[in-house]
Amino acid sequence: MRILFISPEGLPFSKTGGLADVVEGLPKALVELGHEVAVVLPRYRSTRVAKVLVPSLTIPMGLALRFPAIADGTVVNGVRYFFVDDPEYFDREQLYGVGGVDYPDNAERFAEFSRAAVEVAKHVWPADLLHCHDWQAALVPVLLKTVYASDPAFRHVPTILTVHNLGYHGLFPREVLARVGLPETLFHIEALEFFGKVNYLKGGLLFADWITTVSRRYAEEIQTPEYGHGLDGVIRRRADRLVGILNGVDYSAWNPETDEFIVAHYSAKDLSGKRECKRDLLAEFKLPAENLNRPVLGIVSRFVDQKGFDLIAEVADALMEEDLCIAALGTGEVRYELLFRELAARFPARFAARIAYDNVLAHKIEAGADMFLMPSRYEPSGLNQLYSLKYGTVPIVRATGGLDDTIEPFDPRTGRGTGFKFREYEGRALLAAVREALRCFRDQKAWRRLMLNGMTQDFSWKTSAADYLRLYQQAREVRIPRAVGAIQ
Ligand code: ADP
Ligand code: GLC
Predict the structure, then answer these.
(1) Residue 207 has pLDDT above 90, yes or no
(2) Where does ligand 2 bind, in terms of residues with CB under 6 Å?
């Protein structure tokens, strides 16, 4: 099968979060299963390309025309890469905005991107199926069922939209439809209209042939008002076309036996290197070496509401009364950056924070910490808890979305389980889970068992890629003529 991925980010070219890991790992796994995969990405400032393939596409943008090029990014791991190259839109400091503020022309940027991606599918790399990711590519299914509805090139090409995070909609004022050249008829409750605005993700949810999200639990959660971000009604209507497929891990990048960024390698058979990694982590974070015998909790995250750090704020004093040490890495909203900086200032010997995006440090935390904290308010899949399992770094998580699906609570009596979980979104609950983990840490034998339970789990892409393939096949067999929305 020929599968074209359309995504706003993907490694090894661009990344702000887990989406980029997925858009690297899944295509690679599909190629290993014998399929042809290409990925269309925007060409951002940091992206180096091999050559220009199409010097100029003509893309209508309201009353104007734009002329992005399509660049060829060669083949990596058997996966073909194409880039939509429009320097005015994409040659910028960041991907989506700076200092927590979105770029004001994101509607235009990703409308052009989606349209150019459709043109790639038509003229450059005809595919059997288009697999679109998040709101930035959600216009692709909309375009196929409107602007390109009578185009024979797409008559048999189903679209799949994967929702990596329902919290990000691509929400814009009504005028945007005219500005990006989409028909006014789409400003309709059965299409892109959402409380008087234009919602790109809603369009994708209604017009895609199939919707997937990144864990089974999250597929259930997003049908409820609590987790639906106002779109739960739309999702419920499409429940028969919604599938939850858990993200996988690329163990060639995240494996303590081979990780190129850590000071010592280790495995389930020989754990000794982990202590070296812990020593190195403490040094990196300028934490006193006396912490070597204390449990170290690691955090690597985007600092946004989704990740649940207000729970840490709630119980920070009680948490720091415990015999533990914390190393946190992240960037994002100012209030969380402040929270972590303040804690580091108050507890310099036992709390260290690095406000940065730093892949090497992320690996060092996974390897050097004893526990990994993810108190997420919601978590569609989560990758870091899966990386943590592989590194023998025991996850402490809130039981939501992919965290709930992947972490089994440890029971010292049976020796089963892989981590610690709490359910209520409350500081007290987080504290109780941390205390339980600390108690267990003191029992060396039980702790070792717990580490090994996690390290021997297999979350490689193999299983999930096979699930996606089954869905791709089904999508090609069961084509629906039009979206649920009545709009032509
Ligand atoms: P999300 O996509 O919601 O951010 P995931 O757990 O799926 O959450 O994936 C996050 C990915 O981004 C992981 O690969 C993680 O290591 C990485 N990451 C997040 N914040 C940072 C950071 N500050 N520095 C380095 N890597 C980070
Ligand atoms: C999102 C989610 C995260 C998921 C990632 C990749 O950013 O927040 O849970 O793992 O996408 O699917």
Answers:
(1) yes
(2) 17-19, 22, 164-165, 214, 247, 379-383, 402
